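Quick start: read one record
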Amino acid sequence: MLGVSPDGVASHVKFKSRYKLPFTLLVDADHKIAEAYGVWGEKSLFGFKLTGVIRSHFVISSEGKILDAHYDVGAKESAKEALRAIG
């Protein structure tokens, strides 16, 4: 199992620890993976438009089939939903 984010390694370590995630988090610094999954784009933050990751999660089987997908979710909810989906 893997998680992917454009955030750096230090951020991943903190996030993984906070939510007790049982999988590796990968750095997508050039956001190529996010673009491929359609989750890099325009979003609103405190009324401002900016480009970045639209927080989402995908649970993908070892055969490459998407088993679960949620878009525009909060960090805490996304972690819980992903863990529930793989549970």
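The chain has a mean pLDDT of 87.
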